[in-house]
Amino acid sequence: MPKLLQNMQSQVPSIPYAGCLTQMYFFLFFGDMESFLLVAMAYDRYVAICFPLHYTTIMSPKLCLSMLALAWGVTTFQAMLHTLLMARLCFCADNVIPHFFCDLSALLKLSCSDTQVNDLVIFTIGGPLIVIPFSLIIMSYVLETDMTGRNQTAITEFLLQGLSMESEQKNLFYALFLVINLSFSDLCFSSVTMPKLLQNMQSQVPSIPYAGCLTQMYFFLFFGDLESFLLVAMAYDRYVAICFPLHYTTIMSPKLCFSLVALSWVLTTFHAMLHTLLMARLCFCADNVIPHFFCDLSALLKLSCSDTQVNDLVIFTIGGLVVVIPFLLIITSYVRIVLSILKVPSARGMRKAFSTCGSHLAVVSLFFGSIIALYLCPSADNSTVKEMAMAMMYTVVTPMLNPFIYSLRNRDIKGALGRVFYRKIFSRSL
């Protein structure tokens, strides 16, 4: 405002280069600080309304100081990062900013340098600093609503329509899914939906309780997001192994691996819990038939008789990021891998490097390809059968094939399979 008032009375509304970067830094700093303080105030109101007797204990001076310190640390890092990245750019001819202050996006448009790194940082760091605080505020007010009002839903259970198939085919698919699921008992993702699907295929009334439906939806979102983040970690692992083979053990240290896993668990827990809490506040009046084989988020929203605008907004802002950002990070890692492989002088070395990535690319293509086709690029003529088939691809087929595909990359596994087939052929010939 002071610079704006000065420029309104000046014939030449200019600002020095250093002053422009300084203004941008403090604008980002206090803008982010405002966002985090609004989150802290929302949490303060949540505690005051939902836990009034424990307010002084929960909102202790230590907690308030910790939240303030965290806000200052994150905002300082964010503002300084953008300012340093902006300072490395060149500005050649055009120096007219179409704004009343030195806005980040306006300055990037004036630069004659490559701004890809700046755009990537804005997308990966700047976006979450807006979306996550906003989501936390929404979640706190949803919890307040749940504490102050009663969920008037009239439905106590849902009916899962299941897979559309002939009755004689159900026994065949039942046996197939049962054998595959038992063979890969460590696949938590497929285990969220498969046991209930197997039970309903043999049941006359394929129902699921209301609480069980929300529980299934939570764990489905949790393990689905976890699968997405773990695919990113595996892509980064291959990037380091191919591009920095001599430094692999140093870079991919146990500490970094543990940090990646911990970050994945925290983000997936938050995302799954947020959608579950938002779903729990909705009402379901009459129709309780879910046209799916599990409690899918979008299918449940279509059945609700409440206003689902908040749910749709959260899906669009956070749900998209959970799919888009991991996918873009995987693409980025493989672009760097390909650029590094092309520098390898020998053809044998190139083939070996590409073969290292083949199994992971197969899983990524199946997982993200079916998700993008189903949710991000839906076609108007998609029938329920097609939607369930695509959902089956990433919810059941990909997690079950995942360990099988990677085990084929192991030389010991290949050797064991070869010996088994060789013995069978040799015994038949005798």
From TrEMBL:
Principal subcellular localization: membrane
Family annotation (PROSITE patterns): G_PROTEIN_RECEP_F1_1 (PS00237), G_PROTEIN_RECEP_F1_2 (PS50262)
Gene3D superfamilies: Rhodopsin 7-helix transmembrane proteins
Name the UniProt record assigns to this protein: G-protein coupled receptors family 1 profile domain-containing protein
SUPFAM superfamilies: Family A G protein-coupled receptor-like
MF (Gene Ontology): G protein-coupled receptor activity; olfactory receptor activity
Lineage of the species this protein comes from: Eukaryota, Metazoa, Chordata, Craniata, Vertebrata
G-protein coupled receptors family 1 profile domain residues: 1-142, 177-406
Positions of transmembrane segments: 24-43, 63-81, 120-143, 172-194, 214-236, 256-274, 313-342, 354-376, 388-408
Pfam families named in the record: 7tm_4
Subcellular location as annotated: Membrane
Biological function: Putative odorant or sperm cell receptor.
Organism: Cnephaeus nilssonii (Northern bat)
Assigned keywords, A-Z: G-protein coupled receptor, Membrane, Olfaction, Receptor, Sensory transduction, Transducer, Transmembrane, Transmembrane helix
Membrane topology: Multi-pass membrane protein
Entry similarity comment: Belongs to the G-protein coupled receptor 1 family.
